[in-house]
């Protein structure tokens, strides 16, 4: 394949370059071995990076699947251009966790319990809390292991069973668009305006490890946000910088943000 020169690397942040190299390896292997490569679960930013690199190779096709059409985390299958999309290629399983108390499970508790089994985050797809407990998309080879070893999430005792993708209980977040002005595109400034918090509170949340940008923890309040970046604050929700509209006469930046609850 074409080497990843500085022109390509310039499209990505410094901290993303190890993942770019990993994508390059997947593409190289799919081209030289003439067989499909199945990635772990990728977040939307990682999917974008991989798709950007694949589109440079006319001999490679790709498909992605996270278990349902609006899934956030997906596995990607890439391979030679004669490859056809088949559901079996993605090797997905779907688990329903139900609490003995009948209470809903919280996303952080479910994720923490799964990671506590020694699983890597990339083995776990979307986590979907609902009134009956929670549904989880996972890599197929771990389904039996999880069902055998996971008996408690937080303080709740749970039972697990495998379900089909048609049975997933999916609730879409509510999005609100609004325009705000900020002094800069620092992450603390956008969090302050986006969640209507003081700058001091925003800084404290970031430094305590509760802030993620594009699904990666950011602990520097001065971190610069770009158009399309997704910011999440544990316990508050998410916001995305949609567009940078213009600079006001006072030098402030007018931006459009989307809030998700």
From TrEMBL:
<dbReference type="InterPro" id="IPR048443">
    <property type="entry name" value="RqcP2_N"/>
</dbReference>
<protein>
    <submittedName>
        <fullName>RNA-binding protein YlmH</fullName>
    </submittedName>
</protein>
<feature type="domain" description="RNA-binding S4">
    <location>
        <begin position="185"/>
        <end position="252"/>
    </location>
</feature>
<dbReference type="GO" id="GO:0003723">
    <property type="term" value="F:RNA binding"/>
</dbReference>
<dbReference type="InterPro" id="IPR036986">
    <property type="entry name" value="S4_RNA-bd_sf"/>
</dbReference>
<dbReference type="Pfam" id="PF17774">
    <property type="entry name" value="YlmH_RBD"/>
</dbReference>
<dbReference type="InterPro" id="IPR012677">
    <property type="entry name" value="Nucleotide-bd_a/b_plait_sf"/>
</dbReference>
<dbReference type="InterPro" id="IPR040591">
    <property type="entry name" value="RqcP2_RBD"/>
</dbReference>
<dbReference type="Pfam" id="PF01479">
    <property type="entry name" value="S4"/>
</dbReference>
<dbReference type="InterPro" id="IPR002942">
    <property type="entry name" value="S4_RNA-bd"/>
</dbReference>
<keyword id="KW-0694">RNA-binding</keyword>
<dbReference type="Pfam" id="PF21278">
    <property type="entry name" value="YlmH_1st"/>
</dbReference>
């Amino acid at each position: 394949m074409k080497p990843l020169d500085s022109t390509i690397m310039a499209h990505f942040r410094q901290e993303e370059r190890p993942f770019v190299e990993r994508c390059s390896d997947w593409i190289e292997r799919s081209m030289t071995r003439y067989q499909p490569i199945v990635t772990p679960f990728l977040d939307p930013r990682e999917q974008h990076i991989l798709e950007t690199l694949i589109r440079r190779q006319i001999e490679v096709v790709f498909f992605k699947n996270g278990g349902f059409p609006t899934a956030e985390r997906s596995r990607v299958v890439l391979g030679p251009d004669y490859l056809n999309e088949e559901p079996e290629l993605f090797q997905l399983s779907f688990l329903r966790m139900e609490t003995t108390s009948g209470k809903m499970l919280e996303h952080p508790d479910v994720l923490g319990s799964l990671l506590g089994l020694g699983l890597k985050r990339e083995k776990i797809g979307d986590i979907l809390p609902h009134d009956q407990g929670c549904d989880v998309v996972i890599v197929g080879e771990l389904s039996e292991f999880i069902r055998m070893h996971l008996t408690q999430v937080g303080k709740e005792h749970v039972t697990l069973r495998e379900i089909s993708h048609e049975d997933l209980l999916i609730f879409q977040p509510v999005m609100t668009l609004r325009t705000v002005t900020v002094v800069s595109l620092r992450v603390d400034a956008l969090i302050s305006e986006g969640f209507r918090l003081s700058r001091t509170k925003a800084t404290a949340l970031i430094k305590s490890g509760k802030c993620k940008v594009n699904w990666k923890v950011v602990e520097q309040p001065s971190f610069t946000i770009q158009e399309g970046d997704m910011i999440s604050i544990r316990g508050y929700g998410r916001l995305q910088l949609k567009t940078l509209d213009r600079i006001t006469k006072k030098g402030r930046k007018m931006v459009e943000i989307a809030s998700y609850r």
